[in-house]
Design a protein that fits this description.
The structure is a single chain. With 410 residues, this protein is mainly α. The chain contains 20 helices and no strands. The protein is 70% helix and 0% strand. It is elongated, with a radius of gyration of 23 Å. It starts with 20 loop residues before the first helix and ends with a helix.
């Protein structure tokens, strides 16, 4: 599982009446969990226009903006195409507009909460929204900036506000999600550093973290989807892969347009070492991609097929691996030069940045090398020579050398 988790947007979902700010937020919530980020942002903005003093809507918008930032940076792709990550060029400098929009939304949310708390320190909803705002900031430091130490301060503030929520409103089990995430995170720190944190007043338990998150899922009213995503991630970190998959499969049924959940199920099998099962799961994803299933058009065709082929190759299923590499090569060589396109109808979703970039030449060279090598083994030596010859002529030394050696063996 990736470290990127859908942390806070569920905090604004409470089933509003049609035409209310909450009704717009509900639609934004659904689009967010299906990774339709442009649509999600639009509906949260409509919710804010109706109820500008509702801090939860602004936190929801901030969380969407963070995910738009991660998508623009290629981070959402990186977590689901692990096999080809090392073959990608460095990303271009990032346009920080989504980060600025995130901080703006968080700033407005905090100002509203602090004003309410100045008037009434026992305002549980203000504590709850302010805790979520700090949680989004903490998540941003970890996932967008790669600075986990910077995440500790806002994470602690988030935990403190949600502990206060529990004191003021014991029936609010949603607050246990952030508290549980904090408990697990501190409990997961290596021993020596955890002792240092303890001396600074930070303590946590992984088992207690699981208990609190499971309580939020079972008894919370707003946070269950976020808690399930995080629970799946934590189970994967603990190498409880079957439990992680069980949660991910629930999420896939609940949010069928979110292709990341389906890809994570396959990745879970791969991390478990069951490459044949991983290949079957990726085959199901490719069927949806090729059928134009909603949301799956956001997948990047060559990287999807490369991932599938690699699983077949690990499982020693060489004919199937060759077929998948052929599909990857065809996607690169498609006349319209849009390797991300699925044969199905287009959607209004924002594609990943890799989808709008030129074909990835290094990845294509590795496809030529791997496909040529497999064809040499399974008997199609004429085509193997053709593909390996093209790979040997590539400008990538690791591919060129390997292809040259294999041509000599032929």
């Amino acid at each position: 599982m990736p470290c990127v988790v859908l942390l806070a947007a569920a905090g604004v979902n409470a089933q509003g009446q049609a035409g209310s700010g909450q009704a717009y937020a509900d639609r934004g919530f659904d689009h967010f969990y299906n990774l339709e980020l442009e649509e999600a942002a639009s509906f949260y903005q409509k919710a804010i226009a109706v109820e500008p003093e509702n801090p939860g809507f602004r936190v929801g918008l901030a969380h969407v903006r963070m995910f738009q930032h991660l998508r623009a940076a290629g981070r959402l792709d990186a977590q689901i195409y692990g096999v080809s990550n090392g073959l990608l060029p460095k990303p271009a400098p990032l346009d920080a507009k989504f980060e600025r929009a995130m901080w703006e939304a968080l700033g407005h949310a905090r100002a509203i909460c602090e004003k309410r708390l100045a008037a009434n320190q026992n305002d549980a909803e203000a504590h709850y929204a302010l805790g979520l705002a700090h949680a989004v900031e903490s998540n941003f430091h970890v996932n967008a900036r790669g600075k986990p130490r910077d995440a500790l301060g806002p994470a602690t503030k988030a935990k403190n506000h949600h502990q206060r929520v529990r004191e003021l409103d014991p029936a609010n089990h949603d607050a246990n999600f952030v508290i549980g995430g904090y408990e697990y995170a501190i409990g997961s720190v290596p021993g020596a550093f955890r002792w240092m944190l303890y001396l600074l007043g930070h303590s946590g338990s992984k088992s207690r973290g699981f208990e609190l998150i499971e309580d939020a899922i079972a008894h919370g009213k707003r946070i269950a989807p976020s808690a399930r995503v995080t629970l799946a991630y934590f189970h994967a970190r603990e190498k409880r892969f079957s439990r992680s998959r069980s949660v991910l499969e629930e999420l896939t049924r609940a949010y069928p347009r979110n292709q990341v959940f389906a890809m994570e199920v396959a990745l879970s099998f791969a991390r478990e070492g069951n490459h044949a099962a991983a290949a079957r799961a990726y085959e199901e994803v490719t069927r949806k991609f090729e059928a134009g299933a909603p949301g799956f058009g956001r997948l990047v065709a060559p990287r999807l097929y490369f991932q599938l082929a690699a699983m077949h190759e690990h499982a020693k299923q060489y004919p199937q691996a060759a077929a998948a590499y052929e599909k990857a090569l065809a996607a690169f060589d498609r006349a319209d030069s849009t390797p991300h396109s699925s044969p199905g109808p287009a959607r209004s979703d924002s594609p990943s940045p890799a989808a709008s970039s030129p074909p990835l030449a290094r990845l294509r060279a590795h496809v030529l090398l791997r496909l040529g090598s497999i064809l040499a083994v399974v008997g199609d030596k004429a085509r193997a020579r053709l593909l390996l010859g093209e790979a040997a002529a590539s400008p990538y030394s690791e591919v060129s050398r390997a292809a040259t050696r294999r041509l000599k063996n032929l």
